[in-house]
Amino acid sequence: MDWQGQKLAEQLMQILLLIAAVVAFVVGYATASFRTMMLIYAGGVVVTTLITIPNWPCFNRHPLKWLDPSEAEKHPKPQVVVVSSKKKSSKK
Length: 92
Known about the structure:
By secondary structure, the chain is mostly helical. It has helices spanning 3-31, 34-52, 69-74.
């Protein structure tokens, strides 16, 4: 899954869960049944999971281009810089 695919999956998940929650609440309120509301919401979670978790082709439309190992060796690796978090005390 590429970066844009991850973003799309995240947006789909949020939208689908919101729709499932609203539908579950309305149906549960109309039927005065907490059990019905929870079953509808659980069904929405299952459907959302089946849509967003597998690596579907629609989530791979922008593949990443990686460097060849020989090309990567030509570029230096970034150096780690350690910054001290101690504060100097000033005497007056």
